[in-house]
Design brief:
By secondary structure, the chain is an all-alpha fold. 83% of the residues lie in helices and 0% in strands. It has helices at residues 2-9, 12-31, 35-47, 49-71, 77-100, 103-123, 133-150, 154-161, 168-192, 198-223, 228-253. Helix 3 (35-47) runs parallel beside helix 11. The longest helix has 26 residues, at 198-223. The model has no long low-confidence stretch (mean pLDDT 81).
């Protein structure tokens, strides 16, 4: 069993993946977002883009199952239902891109999305339009395609959901619930199409306890925190550093 586990992670990559997963779990439990954005560019470098999507989404799905019972009563189902349906409908197109696009392009694209997202959040930019059904479906469609291609479908949803005046617990509940409603189908689609193999799923099983520990610790920290600004900025700083690393790597390779 141990040699098989080591082969899944290829030496030093194992410890890198464990460390990244622990930090990602802290962010997910603490802020409700950011774990996929942290893991995606690094895991794509370590394991390849298709395996990255399965590993990240499988870990995220189990964490969503863990967090959903705690937050479901705060979720805004009027927004989440059409958004999630649209995201699921867009996933097959994203999986096609995942199978067709070079790994380094995906790493660079993910990193650019993360950096742009963080900059927008830091500048205080907010979506100012009305939360209409058309806008909600559009956001879900873009997010679903991005999630299938890169495992990072959060930025458009986060910018949309965080644009209102909802309290932190509602924002956190909406984000956790959205992932809960969309990730299982994505995992099934990617595995069923043969884009990624079961090794990627086995890797997620190994990393899941690390993610669970991080999410539990992060959740305890959230419940003792009064400052929304602090919980956002800690997560955004880590994400910005990760995105910048991916961009610099892509620039050096290119």
């Amino acid at each position: 069993m141990i040699p098989y586990v080591e082969s899944l992670f290829a030496g030093v990559g194992m410890w890198t993946a464990i460390g990244v997963t622990l930090v990602a779990g802290l962010m997910r439990g603490f802020a409700g977002f950011g774990s996929a954005m942290l893991m995606a560019p690094i895991f794509a470098i370590l394991f390849g883009s298709a395996d990255m999507v399965v590993t990240v989404v499988a870990i995220e799905l189990v964490v969503s199952l863990q967090l959903f019972p705690q937050v479901r009563r705060h979720a805004d189902w009027q927004v989440l239902t059409p958004m999630s349906i649209a995201a699921c409908a867009a996933m097959p197109a994203g999986v096609w891109l995942l199978a067709s696009v070079d790994k380094n392009i995906i790493v660079t694209a993910v990193s650019a999305v993360i950096v742009a997202f963080v900059i927008l959040m830091w500048t205080g930019w907010k979506y100012t339009g009305r939360r209409s059904t058309v806008a909600t479906v559009a956001v879900g469609t873009v997010s679903g395609a991005m999630m299938a291609t890169t495992s990072v479908g959060g930025p458009p949803v986060l910018l949309y959901l965080l644009s209102g005046n909802d309290p932190p617990q509602v924002n956190r509940a909406n984000i956790v619930t959205y992932y809960f409603l969309t990730q299982f189908l994505l995992l099934v689609i990617v595995l069923a199409t043969g884009v990624a193999g079961l090794d990627a799923l086995a890797r997620a099983v190994v990393l899941f306890p690390v993610m669970t520990l991080g999410a539990w610790l992060g959740g305890r920290a959230f419940h003792g925190l009064a400052s929304e600004r602090l919980y956002r900025n800690v997560a955004l700083t880590i994400l910005f550093a990760t995105g910048l690393f991916g961009l610099l790597r892509g620039w050096l390779i290119g």
